[in-house]
Amino acid sequence: MNRTTKPRVLCLDDEPEVLESLRDALRRQFEVVVSTNGFEALRLLASDPFAVVLTDMRMPMLNGARFLTLAQEHAPDTVRVMLTGQSALPDAAAAINDGQIFRLLLKPCKTDDLVKALEAAVVEHGARINQRAERDGLVDTTVQAMMKLSAQVDPDGRARGDRVKRHALELAGRVKAITSTSELATACLLMQLGAVGVSAETRARAAANSRLGPEHATELERLPELAAPLVPGFVALEPVAALLAATAPPFATSRPRTPDVPGGAQVLRIALDFELQLRQGAPGETAMRALNGRTGRYDPALLATFGQLMQFT
């Protein structure tokens, strides 16, 4: 079997000699990567795809159960297998009940049994990848269908969303710990669903590329929060709906960025408001001054970064 076609398995154990034994036992069937440190293993999982991760239960600093919980967050498609002794069975059973483990193997484990378990885990990994691809395809198809329907209500919506997305992604690229850029990009498009809550006059002026009045811009500022409850109910789109809902002002400095209040919401808020200032006929520098004058509406650090990005500071 060619090395590049072998399924990748990450093995974690605090004893180097155990890892060497695992590498020797598994090298024919798998591409084996080893680590003696749970935190290093998490970095490996986050940076490179693995079909399976195999860990011992008893580990210093970060035990196997806790490691697998974090591994699930870092690499949800990677299949998790635990190798443990009799004394650690109660803790391992708890991890199984939490849904963290695909297979539990008891020490000493025969090589044939270990290989069979890992081969089954590789099959499970393939099934997960296929399910994700099918799900993502369904989500993409649904999003595109909804955008076509939205275009009938708001013909300017797609072009507006693309302009907002360009500014939003440029700003997100300058800021750390911002919501997934793919979720942000999707939110910029799906916010146009909120046009059903906007007056026909405002939609008509936008479609005719006419200059917007303040009253029209005020209506369009509410697009994200109007769109949030209309986002299709796929699990994959839940962060997008949360991002849209969280754009509603004011900005609260005491409110932490969490999955419920994503940092990307402020990025979208700034990008949309800037676009609407431009649509009212304001030059870029004037539009930026208008945003700076709306105290309490934006994250000050993000707004300052956006001003630097637009070269208005």
Automatic annotation (TrEMBL):
Residue stretches in coiled coil: none
Residue ranges annotated for the Response regulatory domain, each copy included: 8-122
A Pfam match: Response_reg
Protein origin, superkingdom: Bacteria
Residue positions where 4-aspartylphosphate is found in the record: 56
SUPFAM superfamilies associated with the record: CheY-like
UniProt-listed GO biological process terms: phosphorelay signal transduction system
Keywords annotated in UniProt: Phosphoprotein
InterPro entries documented for this protein: Bact_response_regulator (IPR050595), CheY-like_superfamily (IPR011006), Sig_transdc_resp-reg_receiver (IPR001789)
Membrane spanning residue stretches: none
Protein's name in the database: Response regulator
Native source species: Solirubrobacter ginsenosidimutans
